[in-house]
Amino acid sequence: MKLSKFSDQELIQAYLKGNEAAIEQLIVRFRSQVYTYIICKVKNDALAEDIFQDTFIKVINTIRKGKYNDEGKFLPWVMRIAHNLIIDHYRKNKRMPFVKNSDEFDIFDVIKNPDNNIQEDLEKNQVLSDVKSLIKFLPSDQKEVLMMRLFYDMSFKEISETTNVSINTALGRMRYALINLRKMAEEKNLNLTLH
To answer: 114: which DSSP letter?
Structure first.
């Protein structure tokens, strides 16, 4: 059976039995999600690459030592490691990160739907542009939960574990983010619905 068909747990077990390609498969499987999360936080390609590598070095070392406790939560565990390494980096540098889009990377460029016609694409691009312009005005905790939920497709349980808050707090932040987006859209007379 091809490694790409293995579950996360099966890949970990294969790696522990000496199959180095199994850990490579895990890294490839989650590279996009983990790297996207990191780059959204640090806004620096070189730093994001360093933190990404440190994240997976820590993952590999933990698995090697037999300290990884799999409960079907490999990705949230990796995301929590990345999150903690980002926090460690900013603590060392005595400055806190903020989320903003840059010219090099824009999360909205990643979201594409090939089934749309040109008019739907134009409408969607306008809505995404409007939403993007409003998201930057949200408080950072609301922005973080909104992006994790909508763009990384993380569950509220995964969000709570990654950000070290309760599920209710994560839900509350999402609720307030949506309320604030609606209020801002109304104030600016923006239609955020797709037809």
So the answer is: T
pLDDT at 89: 86
Do 78 and 109 form a contact (C-beta atoms < 8 A)?
Answer: no
- On whether the pTM is more than 0.90, the answer is no
User: What is the rounded average pLDDT of the residues 34-58?
Assistant: 90
What's the half-sphere exposure (Cβ side, CA atoms, 13 Å) at 56?
Answer: 19
The answer to whether residues 135 and 72 belong to one domain is no
pLDDT at 144: 87
Residue 99 Rama label (left phi>0; alpha psi -120 to 50; beta): beta
Q: How many domains does the chain have?
A: 2
**Where does residue 1 rank: exposed (0-12), middle (13-18), buried (19+ CB within 10 A)?**
exposed
